């Protein structure tokens, strides 16, 4: 991960102005949520396998967060928001540039991701260790320096987990992280809405760059652009 303090400008495509599929998210019930998904499949706006995946995502999420004390209504509200954003990706997919700045307006995808992962964390038994290290990191960033953290995150939720653990003690740092993103998190319709709320440098893994011979040249050019963007960010602090 690369941390930086530079402000960038991003152009928004037409999908930002699209209407909600679930118009009154705050009052939606479980049956309405599931029937809404099935209607999208029946209307052939999404593949049947995507509809099945949405229902499976809802069931798995509900099972996980009910143990933490979340209410059924809150779960439905969160999942309706998630599925609404996923459906938009099937209608008009967002294309990530080599360097993507978190989208905070007119729709705040950062808060969207935080709200989804928050109920999955047990804050009573979770804590941020080595706080002094993060104090130093945040201080250096505010002075215009660069800080690079070398790590290997295992799930798409990890950026949100890290930001949630930092948000109380280091709010500036929690929103200033830039992550190195592989192709799945910027191409899978179920992952993309969460990625849209993060600062990302988008690359293709060397391990899989030759999987599709016809795309090798495009992938290499994308990686070269990402390296140039990284160099610019480091120069500008």
From TrEMBL:
Domain Phospholipid/glycerol acyltransferase: 140-218
Gene Ontology MF term list: glycerol-3-phosphate O-acyltransferase activity
Any Gene Ontology CC annotation: chloroplast stroma
Record-annotated Glycerol-3-phosphate O-acyltransferase alpha-helical bundle N-terminal domain positions: 31-94
GO biological processes: phosphatidylglycerol biosynthetic process
Protein keywords: Acyltransferase, Chloroplast, Lipid biosynthesis, Lipid metabolism, Phospholipid biosynthesis, Phospholipid metabolism, Plastid, Transferase, Transit peptide
EC number: 2.3.1.15
Major enzyme class: transferase
InterPro entries recorded: G3P_O-acylTrfase_chlp (IPR016222), G3P_O-acylTrfase_N (IPR023083), GPAT_N_sf (IPR038114), Plipid/glycerol_acylTrfase (IPR002123)
Pathway in which the depicted protein is active: Lipid metabolism; Phospholipid metabolism; CDP-diacylglycerol biosynthesis; CDP-diacylglycerol from sn-glycerol 3-phosphate: step 1/3
Protein localization: Plastid, Chloroplast stroma
SUPFAM superfamilies named among the record's database cross-references: Glycerol-3-phosphate (1)-acyltransferase (SSF69593)
Motif HXXXXD motif positions after renumbering to this chain: 153-158
Family: Belongs to the GPAT/DAPAT family.
Classification via PANTHER family: GLYCEROL-3-PHOSPHATE ACYLTRANSFERASE, CHLOROPLASTIC
Protein name in the entry: glycerol-3-phosphate 1-O-acyltransferase
